[in-house]
Write a structure and sequence with these properties.
- The complex is a heterodimer of chains A (424) and B (252).
- Chain A has a 14-stranded antiparallel β-barrel. Chain A has a five-stranded antiparallel beta sheet with strand order 19-18-22-24-23, with no helix packed on it. In chain A, strands 16-17-21-20 form a four-stranded antiparallel beta sheet, with no helix packed on it.
- Chain A is 4% helix and 58% strand.
- In chain A, β16 and β17 form a beta hairpin.
- Chain A is mostly beta strands and 424 residues long.
- The chains are: A mainly beta (424), B mainly alpha (252).
C-alpha cells in the first residue's frame, strides 16, 4: 500500500528538487499536514495528508494533475486524484474564451467514493487585468453517487483588484436528476420506473409513469427506481489579500434551493486560510471552515481545519481570479538601509504569474541578474548602485526587456525603452 | 551611463556653432580611422575589461570602430562612459555590430551637439541631453532649460522632458513646462513628484499633454522671497505636500 502512494508522491518531490533549472512553465507543489474533519453524523477524522500536484502551463493551454493520500491510524489511503486540461483563446476585444475538461476520483471511505468527468466553457471580459466578468456553462457527469443524471452547470461572476486585495463574486446554478424514494417529504412528483436485471427498462427517466407490476414469478429481480428533478444555486464571495510573504483568503457562500435539495447544514458556509512563505519554496499553511455538500462527489456538508507545510517549486496561482491573468509587474521600488554597505541597494519588484525575473542596467554593465523570489510575487536582488542616473530594464520569463513600472523612460536606440533610475 | 558628476565641459564651446563642432568631430574620426591606429585611450577603456566582458562578443571590425568613437569622444572632452554603456546595452539586447556602431555614432554626434548648448556639464547631464536630442527635443530648448537652471544639474528635468516627448507631448509644450518649473525654483524632488502625478493621470486615461498642463499649473513654486518671476508664472508659496499615495520609487 505504501509503495503505491510513494509512486505518486515521489515524482512531485523530484520536481521540487529541480529548483531554478526546471522548465519555466512547470508548476509543482507538495502539501503535507494534519487535517481534522467533521462530517455530520459521522465520527471525527484526524488524518495526515500528502497532496502533490503538477501543472504544465503555456499561453494557450494548461494541463494539470494532482492527487492526495491520507494516513489514518496505521494505514495510508488514497484519497483521490484529478487530471485536467484547459484551452485558452487569444484575447480579442478584451474577450477571452476558456474550455476546461477534467476527470477526477475521490475516495473518502466506502460510502463516499465517486468518479466524475466534467467540462466547462467560459467567456471572460477582461478590463486591463484590473477586473473582469465571466459567464459559462457545462456538464458534470458523476458515477456511483445519488445523482442519477448528468449535472447541468451554468455560472457567472465578476472580480476586481483593490490594491493588494482581490475580490470576486459568483453565482453557480446546478440542475440534475436525483435518485430518491418513491414519495419524498417535499411532496413533489417524482418519476419512477421498474428495471429488471438483464432486461431492458420499462420506463425512462423523466416520464411520470405508472409501472405495471411485473410477473409474480420474476418479482425478486425487479428494481424500482425513482428520480426527481433537483436544482439549486450557490452564491459565493471571496477576498484574497497578499502582502510580502503573507497571503490571506476568505470565502463565504449561500445556497438557494428548496429544503429537499439543500439541507440546513449546506445552506451557508465560510472558510479562511493563511499562507506564510518562510522561504521562496516553503510555506506554512493553515485554514479552517465549513464546506457545503457536493452532489457531484456525493459528499455531505463538513467542517474542517488543516495546518501544514507547502513545498512549491512555483506556487499555484491564486484561485480567487477565475481566469489566469497574464504575467504582470505590479510595482518597483528601491530600498537601502543603514545596515547595508553604502553603495548597496535592494531592488524590490512585485510580479505575479511568472517564473523568472531578471534586471540589468548601466549599474550591472548591462549583464542580466536574476532576482530571488520570496513568497508568491515578491522578488528581490541587492546590488551596488552608485548615486546618479542609471538606465534599467527588467524582463520576465526570458521575454522582451522593458522598463520597470513607475520610472521615467526613454528610447534605447535598439527598438525598445529603458527606465531611468535616480539615486540621490 | 553612471555616476560621474565632475564638470567636463568647456564654456568656450558655447560660442561655436553646432555645425562647426560636428564637422570638427567627424574630421577627428576620419583622421583616426584613416590612420588605422587603435587610439590609446580607447585601448585603456577596453584593456580594463576582462575577455569575458560583453564588448568581446562583438565582431572585431565593429569593436574597432567603437574604440575609435570612444577615443574620439575623450579627445573632444566628452565622457566615453555613456557611449561604452550604450554599446554594452546593445550587445546585451542582441543588436548586431553594425546596428550598435550606427547608434553609437548617432549618440556621439548628439553628445557633441549637447555640449555646445550645455557648456559646462556632468556626465549625467550630457547623456540626458543627448538622449533628449535623439528623442526630438531641439538644442535651443535644451539651451533655454540650461539658462533657467544655471548652477544646478538639469539631468533630471531632461530625463522627464524626454519621457514626456516619448509619450506624445509636443516638444514645445514639454520643454516650456520644464523651463517654467525651473524658473519657479522646482527642485529635483519636485520634478520626481510631478512626474509621478503625471504618470498616475496618464495611467488613469488622462492625455499626457493635459496631465502635464494640470500639474505644471498646480505647482506653486519654491522661489525665495524677493525673486523676480517671469510674467505669467504663479507667485511663490510653500511647496506642495507630497501625497502619501505617490511615494518616490527612486529615492533610497
Amino acid at each position: 500500500m505504501i509503495k503505491q502512494h510513494a509512486v505518486m508522491v515521489l515524482p512531485a518531490l523530484a520536481l521540487l528538487t529541480f529548483g531554478q533549472q526546471a522548465p519555466a512553465q512547470l508548476v509543482s507543489k507538495l502539501e503535507a499536514g494534519a487535517l481534522v474533519s467533521n462530517r455530520d453524523g459521522v465520527l471525527h477524522e484526524d488524518i495526515f495528508s500528502v497532496t502533490p500536484s503538477v501543472r504544465w502551463e503555456r499561453p494557450h493551454y494548461r494541463v494539470a494533475a494532482s492527487g492526495s493520500a491520507w494516513r489514518t491510524g496505521e494505514q495510508w489511503q488514497l484519497a483521490g486524484g484529478e487530471a485536467a486540461g484547459t484551452l485558452v483563446s487569444p484575447k480579442i476585444f478584451n474577450l477571452r474564451g476558456e474550455l476546461t475538461a477534467r476527470a477526477s476520483r475521490i475516495f473518502y471511505d466506502e460510502s463516499a467514493t465517486a468518479e466524475r468527468l466534467d467540462a466547462l466553457a467560459r467567456v471572460h471580459l477582461l478590463m486591463q487585468d484590473r477586473g473582469g466578468f465571466w459567464v459559462g456553462g457545462g456538464v458534470d457527469r458523476p458515477w456511483r453517487v445519488a445523482v442519477a443524471s448528468t449535472i447541468d452547470v451554468s455560472a457567472g461572476g465578476a472580480w476586481t483588484r483593490l490594491g493588494p486585495a482581490t475580490l470576486s463574486g459568483s453565482v453557480t446554478n446546478f440542475f440534475f436528476s436525483k435518485a430518491t424514494a418513491t414519495r419524498d417529504s417535499s411532496g413533489q412528483q417524482v418519476s419512477c420506473h421498474a428495471r429488471e436485471e438483464g432486461l431492458p427498462n420499462t420506463g425512462g427517466p423523466g416520464t411520470a409513469s405508472t409501472v405495471l407490476p411485473p410477473p409474480a414469478a420474476r418479482m425478486a429481480a425487479v428494481v424500482q427506481e425513482c428520480r426527481r428533478q433537483s436544482r439549486f444555486s450557490d452564491i459565493q464571495a471571496a477576498i484574497e489579500w497578499a502582502h510580502a510573504s503573507l497571503e490571506l483568503n476568505a470565502t463565504a457562500g449561500y445556497r438557494i434551493g428548496d429544503s429537499y435539495d439543500v439541507t440546513p447544514e449546506s445552506r451557508r458556509w465560510a472558510s479562511a486560510a493563511a499562507t506564510f512563505w518562510v522561504t521562496n519554496q516553503i510555506a506554512a499553511v493553515a485554514g479552517a471552515g465549513r464546506q457545503p455538500a457536493s452532489p457531484a462527489h456525493g459528499l455531505p456538508a463538513r467542517s474542517y481545519a488543516n495546518f501544514g507545510l507547502m513545498l512549491a517549486y512555483w506556487p499555484i496561482p491564486r484561485r480567487t481570479i477565475p481566469v489566469a491573468p497574464r504575467a504582470t509587474v505590479a510595482a518597483f521600488s528601491l530600498v537601502s538601509s543603514p545596515d547595508m554597505p553604502s553603495l548597496e541597494r535592494t531592488i524590490v519588484i512585485r510580479a505575479g504569474g511568472i517564473e523568472k525575473l531578471e534586471v540589468m542596467g548601466s549599474f550591472t554593465e548591462w549583464e542580466p541578474r536574476t532576482l530571488t523570489r520570496f513568497g508568491r510575487d515578491h522578488w528581490e536582488i541587492t546590488l551596488p548602485i552608485a548615486t546618479g542616473l542609471h538606465e534599467i530594464n527588467i524582463r520576465t520569463d526570458g521575454g522582451k526587456w522593458r522598463p520597470p513600472p513607475g520610472l521615467p523612460t526613454r528610447r534605447d536606440g535598439f527598438n525598445g525603452e529603458v527606465g531611468i533610475l535616480v539615486i540621490e | 551611463m553612471s555616476a560621474s558628476d565632475t564638470p567636463a565641459g568647456h564654456s568656450s564651446a558655447r560660442s561655436r556653432p553646432v555645425a562647426m563642432r560636428r564637422v570638427a568631430a567627424l574630421a577627428t574620426l576620419l583622421l583616426a580611422g584613416s590612420a588605422g591606429v587603435a587610439p590609446p585611450i580607447a585601448a585603456q577603456v577596453t584593456q580594463q575589461e576582462q575577455p569575458t566582458s560583453l564588448i568581446w562578443r562583438l565582431d572585431q571590425p565593429s569593436r574597432f570602430q567603437l574604440e575609435i568613437l570612444f577615443d574620439s569622444a575623450t579627445k573632444l572632452g566628452l565622457p566615453a562612459e555613456p557611449l561604452y554603456a550604450k554599446a554594452l546595452e546593445g550587445i546585451s539586447k542582441g543588436a548586431n555590430g553594425r546596428r550598435i556602431v550606427e547608434y553609437i555614432r548617432k549618440y556621439f554626434s548628439a553628445m557633441i551637439d549637447a555640449r555646445t548648448v550645455l557648456g559646462t556639464f556632468t556626465t549625467d547631464e550630457i547623456s540626458s541631453a543627448a538622449s533628449a536630442l535623439l528623442t526630438g527635443v531641439d538644442a535651443e530648448q535644451i539651451g533655454r532649460l540650461r539658462k533657467s537652471r544655471s548652477g544646478k544639474s538639469i539631468a533630471l528635468p531632461l530625463v522627464i522632458l524626454s519621457d514626456l516627448v516619448n509619450r506624445g507631448v509636443p516638444t514645445s509644450d514639454a520643454s516650456s513646462a520644464m523651463v517654467q518649473l525651473t524658473q519657479r525654483g522646482a527642485l529635483d524632488s519636485d520634478f520626481q513628484g510631478l512626474w509621478l502625478r503625471i504618470n498616475q493621470d496618464i495611467v488613469s486615461g488622462v492625455p499626457p499633454a493635459a496631465a502635464l498642463q494640470r500639474w505644471t499649473r498646480d505647482f506653486s513654486g519654491r522661489s525665495p522671497p524677493g525673486t523676480r518671476l517671469p510674467p505669467g508664472t504663479a507667485p511663490p508659496t510653500s511647496a506642495p505636500p507630497r501625497t502619501p499615495e505617490t511615494p518616490s520609487t527612486t529615492s533610497p
